[in-house]
């Protein structure tokens, strides 16, 4: 991969130098063609989306959609989906799974992931699609993005056209296709924290009906938090690179073949969890607190990049079978591997109280323990900490989708299709301590230097998922209503099947109680579910620039099984039913655009996780160990969803664009039954109800931007500034201080801090480079421009105190871009 990185950087620099050569060295410049997005001269540009499987004007599509275009991503210096975590689209939340940027949580309107989707037999509730291909796993989503045309965020259930795992919505990512004209767009840059970037997009002229496009990218940043262990990586750094190639073949005027392939490499170290407030036990009370964003970790621990490697091939066939009928086929295969090395919590795990089951917390190291009352302990020689979680993930997926999109006269538009999807996934996980204290004062510590190859496999599982679906959607525009009414109805039938097994628990076969005896064997999974998801939408064109709609739709997240459990019992799909009304308007001679939507809905069979102590069986006797287990159950109650979203765009003067967007998202989940027993209360009492919070969902969020473009003789000055606010959200959905015996909350779950983060970019563009026709842009950018800091994710308990993750520190840099 180092060779690939050097090759991409060399190619980018070579193409940059090539653009500086005299005109004789270049082919004749191809003039820019006017596109659909540039037709409103002097006003706001038209935005084309594909949310309903066909190219349509955003303002005439009766769905709540937010769009980030190529220029938006450049201005915000977005290099991967991870960078959308600052809240560029208020209803969208993107965050790492705990500290792991290699597995992303994606929520829309507060729906998507409530807990852990980082498992083979579990899914997310927001579907991510790239050029029509579903990305089946949260792993791999942090890879660098290629040449993007649009990122469309479809809000609310999309179960009819997009199918399974879109109960919260869908991210529809559309890349730029080969143009058949010679073009080049190359960027090189560098910034603080040792960051650098080289990116190239090359379009070759069409020949014999073939058009070819090549994309390559390399981007790197050192860690944001120093690791005192010199031999280890720093926290929160990344190294991303990839290559994408696409061939578009016009076999005939009405038939095209589009073949694309890509490979990507994403190496990232985990975020750093800081101890913010002390707890009640002596270790936590004496903790080294870091209430502000840390520059250096308290303890040096083993830390290495988590590496994701992804390759894929996509084949699209499009046949214009008739003037009013397009037939499409999308065939895709993807292979993914992802390692996950997480030692983010050393500073907090060193403060934890000991347990009766494991008073030393170490591996055969001598120790002495001094107690000072229940729950109060002191550090001592041999006390181990630094829990290193090592997990490996492998996935192969194959999908085939067929579509027919057409019109029957002026009154009926339709889209019908079928999808077949198969994926095979397996994983394993290890967890062990890497450090220990050398003295009772806790002033010095050492590393255990444990080879992962010698450590037990805590768990391992595998699963094969097969999903088939058939869907249809039609829009009827009756002539008797003067073509201003549009009634849309849709229906999708889906069948999911998951077959696999939990293979290893604590480095051995799982233990099953069968007919009064304990039997060691893999625990099998063989479950299937069928769903029907309808949609009804009534839209009214109140005027050419005012479009109103009311929509009802449903969606679901597939059922599955929890590989962190001991019984591997299947759980059922969770579902969302939502009613939405909205208005899309333009006014002021197309210099103003205001869109608003309000929604309400129900959230059923919510998949909830509950953790407890793992009980092993030794010589026929159940023994409680320190390993926790997690069971997933479907909540028997009904959740409530409601919210409002608004977007305003203004072009008050030529070259000046102002945007503002706001979202209020509310998710109320009823108390749920915890299936784990209460220790010390006669063994196994009945399950008890606990309060539930919705995670990764700020009640209020907003984003705004200013873009100003000023022609100055032979160059253009461009200025961009955006601000992004959220009111804070919960990172865990149960109270750590809930007393099941009394029903009283003694310690409430803390919410993450509110945050306001600004990003900016200043560029001098359109600098002519000789007679070549090439244009140079020189720019400076900054993310978190004012270095604002807040703890976006908190976890806590009364004994151990409050720990959390801070948002990224300010990053900045400069770039040179050449295009022709």
Please provide a brief summary of the model.
By secondary structure, the protein is mostly beta strands. The chain has four helices and 43 strands.
Describe the fold and architecture:
The structure is a single chain. It contains four helices and 43 strands. It is mainly beta. It has a 22-stranded antiparallel beta barrel. A five-stranded mixed β-sheet has the order 3-8-9-6-7. Strands 15-42-41 form a three-stranded antiparallel β-sheet, with no helix packed on it. A hairpin with a 6-residue loop joins β1 and β2 (56-57). The longest helix is centred in the N-terminal third of the chain and has 17 residues, at 2-18. It is globular.
Write the layout of secondary structure elements.
Layout: H1 2-18, E1 48-49, E2 56-57, E3 65-69, H2 70-75, E4 92-97, E5 100-108, E6 126-130, E7 133-134, E8 148-155, E9 169-175, E10 183-191, E11 195-203, E12 210-221, E13 238-252, E14 255-268, E15 274-277, H3 282-285, E16 306-322, E17 325-342, H4 346-349, E18 384-408, E19 412-437, E20 445-447, E21 459-476, E22 485-505, E23 511-514, E24 517-520, E25 523-543, E26 546-557, E27 574-587, E28 592-604, E29 607-618, E30 621-634, E31 638-653, E32 656-668, E33 672-674, E34 688-690, E35 700-712, E36 715-726, E37 738-739, E38 744-745, E39 755-768, E40 775-783, E41 791-797, E42 801-806, E43 811-819
């Amino acid at each position: 991969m180092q060779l690939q990185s050097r090759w991409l950087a060399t190619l980018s620099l070579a193409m940059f130098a090539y653009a500086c050569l005299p005109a004789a060295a270049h082919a004749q410049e191809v003039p820019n063609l006017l596109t659909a997005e540039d037709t409103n001269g002097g006003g706001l540009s038209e935005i084309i989306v594909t949310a309903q499987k066909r190219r349509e004007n955003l303002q005439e599509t009766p769905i709540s959609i937010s769009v980030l275009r190529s220029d938006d991503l450049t201005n915000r210096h977005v290099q991967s989906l991870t960078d959308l975590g600052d809240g560029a689209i208020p209803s969208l939340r993107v965050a790492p799974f705990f500290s792991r940027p290699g597995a992303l949580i994606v929520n829309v309107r507060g729906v998507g992931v409530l807990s852990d989707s980082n498992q083979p037999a579990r899914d997310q509730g927001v579907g991510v699609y790239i050029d029509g291909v579903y990305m089946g796993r949260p792993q791999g989503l942090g890879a660098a993005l290629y040449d993007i045309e649009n990122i469309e965020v479809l809000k609310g259930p999309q179960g009819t056209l997009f199918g399974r795992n879109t109960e919260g919505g869908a991210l529809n990512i559309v890349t730029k296709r080969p143009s058949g004209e010679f073009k080049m767009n190359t960027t090189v840059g560098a910034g603080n924290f040792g960051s650098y970037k080289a990116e190239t997009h090359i379009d070759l002229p069409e020949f014999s009906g073939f058009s070819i496009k090549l994309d390559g990218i390399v981007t790197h940043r050192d860690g944001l938090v120093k690791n005192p262990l010199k031999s280890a990586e720093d926290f929160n750094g990344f190294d991303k690179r990839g290559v994408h190639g696409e061939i578009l073949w016009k076999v005939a005027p009405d038939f095209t073949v589009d073949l694309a392939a890509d490979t990507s490499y994403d190496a990232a170290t985990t975020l750093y969890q800081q101890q913010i407030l002390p707890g009640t036990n002596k270790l936590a009370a004496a903790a080294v607190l870091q209430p502000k964003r840390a520059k250096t970790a308290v303890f040096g621990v083993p830390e290495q990049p988590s590496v994701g490697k992804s390759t894929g091939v996509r084949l699209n066939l499009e046949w214009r079978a008739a003037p009013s009928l397009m037939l499409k086929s999308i065939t895709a295969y993807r292979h993914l591997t992802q390692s996950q090395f997480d030692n983010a919590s050393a500073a907090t795990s060193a403060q934890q109280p000991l347990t009766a089951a494991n008073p030393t917390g170490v591996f055969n190291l001598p120790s002495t323990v001094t107690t000072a009352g229940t729950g109060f302990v002191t550090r001592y020689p041999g006390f181990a900490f630094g829990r290193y979680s090592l997990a490996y993930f492998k996935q192969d997926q194959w999908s085939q989708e067929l579509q027919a999109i057409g019109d029957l006269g002026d009154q009926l538009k339709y889209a019908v299709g079928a999808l077949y999807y198969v994926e095979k996934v397996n994983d394993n996980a290890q967890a062990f301590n890497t450090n220990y204290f050398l003295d009772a004062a806790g002033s010095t510590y050492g590393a255990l230097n444990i080879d992962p190859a010698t450590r037990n496999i805590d768990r391992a599982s595998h699963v094969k998922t097969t999903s088939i679906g058939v869907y249809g959607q039609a829009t009827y525009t009756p002539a008797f209503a003067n073509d201003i009414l549009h009634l849309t109805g849709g229906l999708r039938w889906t069948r999911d099947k998951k077959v696999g097994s939990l293979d290893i628990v604590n480095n051995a076969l799982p233990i099953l109680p069968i007919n009064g005896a304990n039997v060691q064997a893999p625990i099998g999974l063989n479950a299937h579910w069928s769903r029907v998801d309808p949609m009804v939408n009534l839209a009214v064109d109140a005027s050419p620039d005012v479009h109103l709609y009311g929509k009802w739709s449903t969606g679901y997240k597939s059922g599955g099984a929890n590989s962190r459990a001991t019984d591997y019992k299947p759980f059922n799909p969770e579902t969302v039913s939502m009613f939405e009304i909205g208005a899309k308007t333009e006014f002021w001679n197309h210099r103003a655009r205001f869109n608003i939507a309000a929604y309400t809905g129900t959230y059923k069979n919510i998949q909830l996780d509950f953790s407890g102590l793992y009980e092993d069986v030794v010589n026929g006797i159940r023994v409680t160990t320190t390993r926790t287990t997690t069971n997933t159950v479907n909540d028997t109650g009904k959740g409530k969803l409601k919210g409002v979203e608004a977007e305003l765009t203004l072009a008050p003067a030529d070259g000046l664009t102002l945007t503002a967007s706001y979202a209020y998202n509310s998710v109320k989940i009823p108390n749920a039954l915890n299936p784990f027993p209460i220790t010390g209360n006669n063994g196994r009492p009945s399950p008890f109800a606990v309060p539930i919070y919705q995670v990764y969902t700020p009640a209020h969020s907003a984003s705004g931007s200013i873009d100003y473009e000023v022609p100055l003789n032979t160059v253009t000055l461009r200025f961009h500034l955006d601000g992004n606010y959220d009111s804070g959200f919960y990172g865990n959905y149960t109270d750590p201080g809930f007393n099941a015996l009394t029903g009283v909350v003694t310690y409430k779950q803390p919410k993450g801090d509110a945050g306001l983060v600004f990003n900016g970019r200043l560029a001098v563009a359109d600098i002519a480079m000789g007679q070549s026709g090439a244009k140079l842009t020189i720019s400076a950018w900054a993310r978190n421009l004012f270095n604002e800091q807040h703890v976006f994710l908190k976890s806590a308990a009364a004994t151990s105190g409050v720990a959390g993750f801070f948002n990224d520190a300010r990053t900045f840099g400069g770039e040179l871009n050449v295009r022709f």
